[in-house]
TrEMBL record, chains A, B:
GO aspect biological process, one term: D-galactonate catabolic process
Keyword DNA-binding in record: no
Top-level class of the enzyme under EC nomenclature: transferase
Name by which UniProt lists this protein: Putative 2-dehydro-3-deoxygalactonokinase DgoK1
InterPro entries: ATPase_NBD, DGOK, DGOK_C, DGOK_N
Amino acid sequence: MAAVAWIAVDWGTTHVRVWLMSADGQVIEARSGDRGMGALAQDGYELALLALISDVLGHGPVPVIICGMAGAKQGWAEAPYASVPCAPPDVSSAKRVPTQDARVQVYILSGVSQRNPADVMRGEETQIKGLIATQPDFDGVACLPGTHTKWAHLSAGEIVSFQTFMTGELFALLSLQSVLRHSVATEGWDDAAFATAVDDAMGRPQTIAAKLFGLRANALLGGLEGAEARARLSGLLIGIELAASRPYWLGQQVALIGAAASADPYETALTAQGVPVLRMDPTDMTLAGLRAAYSKLDQI
Amino acid sequence: MAAVAWIAVDWGTTHVRVWLMSADGQVIEARSGDRGMGALAQDGYELALLALISDVLGHGPVPVIICGMAGAKQGWAEAPYASVPCAPPDVSSAKRVPTQDARVQVYILSGVSQRNPADVMRGEETQIKGLIATQPDFDGVACLPGTHTKWAHLSAGEIVSFQTFMTGELFALLSLQSVLRHSVATEGWDDAAFATAVDDAMGRPQTIAAKLFGLRANALLGGLEGAEARARLSGLLIGIELAASRPYWLGQQVALIGAAASADPYETALTAQGVPVLRMDPTDMTLAGLRAAYSKLDQI
């Protein structure tokens, strides 16, 4: 194994991912665990980290660069938000966290906040940093679909403004825990139903709460199939998001950073609106962002 | 105790309520249990009913008039929907359910459905029947706030059209199970926050998914209090409902049938829009509706 020069970490709510990095920025090995923020008390983070990496630590201290929820108030140590407009944070503004084990030097990257309208992100700013690092000429909008989808205006290497939508969480709650769970399948899809629902919701977004119950009623009365209901539910929720995020995507190029399951429907819907979409792999962007953040270490 | 001439039953998803009725339509006694549709298999209904009433049964058969989810496909016996436009169903179209115990004659009232847009109700139609029975001159719109809020156009004793909104269920899911549970109190209220949120949502309904996350961000960044967040969440959801239900309430008198906790915010929001509101007690309406449905028994 090549020598581990530093360690990149994405510490989310439910999972933690670790990459052992060489001096020239290559991934030596990727590792992961399920001890996310939700499963850890403040004093549990160091041991959880060491459990993933202690076998590769030598005598000298190794920098560990962390993005994500580990920097939240309920995380390992609070890394205060940077405020827009700003470049996605690097180690120069990171929270330096003391550890009992001297073999690690832990830095937690700041999230980004916006005053008005109030908004926050933790983790996505590092993916955006990766986008800026790998596409330095990109000037436009980033969309990061997920539990809490983020839209961000980027310009000259900075996040200018951003907005979060609870679309992914609404989809999960409605499809798994509401009365719609009887009508919405857990898999399967219908392209036409999705497209129609996006158009419906964009055209008359205020009808969303009625359209949602309509899925149930159509299943009871009209035999709406579960896979079609699933695509329609997704289309309704993405449709109202696109109606509200129009100032972000209209006339713009959109870099779409997300796993296939969440990003594919966004690509379909945006393409139907004539928006040019640049798909970027979310893990690649996280890693590129952590690499860019780490690159400033010799300046502090 | 006066003689029990018939028995009125409201059999919902989570509870069952029973009223022992005299020949002149007075309530002799009210009883209730927690064996709703969700807790019963088809063959469990008769015993669950008898457990509540067997002590008052004599030799002759007693009519039992049931409204609500007992008539659903997953209930005691399916009572097919009546289609709008129609008067709220009475016993003449009820499902007569055979019982092993000859001391009861069970009738389950039909729900009401609508073909386009597809919609269904089970239980609310009987409250509407109660409204029509007690306010025979009422011509306007009924609003029944709840888990699945119903709006219904009434004319000449019939339900002309109706629409269901998942507002109550969305409020419960978002306030108790989403990321907002960290920011939204389980009680408390703020009138001004509610009013502002209703206006925001009615004016720009498409922004709902962003406004929802805004509650979380404002709690993190701006110290938004839990009670204010609760009122704002309610206002946002009722606001988008009022934006979509405008064709129902605009220029109309609205009979509002619901428990205080769910109906009070609707009254506040509708009154702010200049809509005259007639408050009706939901239990009184259920009972009046069952009484009106029972009154047709001698005609079958």
